Amino acid sequence: MFEKEFIKDHQYIIATDEVGRGPLAGPVVTCAVGVRVDNLAVLASILKEYGVTDSKKLSLKKMERILEELNISTFKKQNFRDLFEYSVEKITPKKIDEVNIFQASLLGMKKSCHNILKQDSVVLVDGKFPFKSTKVKDVHAVIKGDSKSVLIGLASIIAKVFRDRLMIKEARKFPYYGFEKNAGYPTAAHRKAIEEYGITPIHRKTFKGVKEFVQE
Questions:
Q1: Rounded CA gap, 95 and 75, in Å?
Q2: Are 152 and 15 in contact, with CB atoms under 8 Å apart?
Q3: 179-213: pLDDT as tens digits
Q4: What does the angle CA 78 – CA 80 – CA 83 come to, to the nearest 5 degrees?
């Protein structure tokens, strides 16, 4: 089991991932999944049985089925069979513009982890860089962690489904941009809509493809 190599005398392990670094609109969404080390093997077995892996390798339908099996539908912090808990955070486009998308992603993952942090925790962060925290000492960056760790994989799935549903709601407010289909990513139709209708309050004003249309 991949996660075991990071566990020393820890009692709790948390894994976190982000979704939405590339879009021109909408928040970046992060999720942290936490489990007691004693329950890790059982949970990992269940997640593998359900097909949990990197969200980029799964269809939305498959991800929603996995979350349905795990009784995750409202995205409120809760337990599954008392095995794990999770927390979702979203960093607004305004904050992304203030601090940049890299820092916004780290901030969101840190917030998600802090929400479920326990004593004696070790944290796995998907990507090349860990966040810095005064509340937890053992924070490890895991490159391509969403493919290596089922915990990071689950975090990526929860964040992805949460964000996609959020962007579907935004599409009702801003119907010309196809957010229900592109989730804010820079598709040709999305770029054309920006040229024709301008930008919305949820567009990232510092991103190329948006900043050119910001009205001072």
A1: 22
A2: yes
A3: 999 999 999 999 999 999 999 999 999 999 999 99
A4: 105
CA distance 163 to 180: 11
**What is d(CA 203, CA 186) in angstroms, rounded to the nearest whole number?**
11
Given this structure, which CATH class describes domain 2-208? Answer: alpha beta
Half-sphere exposure for 91 (CA within 13 Å, toward CB) = 28
Q: Which residues are annotated as a binding site for a divalent metal cation?
A: 17-18, 126
Strand partners, 80: 84
Residue-wise pLDDT tens digits, 113-148: 999 999 999 999 999 999 999 999 899 999 999 999
Q: Which of 136, 153, 122 is nearest to 49 (CA)?
A: 153
Q: Is the predicted pLDDT of residue 77 greater than 80, yes or no?
A: no
Our CA angle for 120, 42, 129, nearest 5°, is 50
| pLDDT tops 70 at residue 29 | yes
DSSP string covering 40-81, please?
HHHHHHHHHHHT---GGGS-HHHHHHHHHHTT--S--S-EET
Q: Which of 162, 152, 146 lies closest to 67 in space, CA to CA? A: 162
Q: Taking the complete model, does pTM exceed 0.90, yes or no? A: yes
Q: Can you say which residues are annotated as belonging to the binding site?
A: 17-18, 126
Task: Note the pLDDT of residue 81.
Answer: 55
Q: Enter the DSSP assignment of 142.
A: E
Of 192, 197, 173, the closest CA to residue 26 belongs to 173
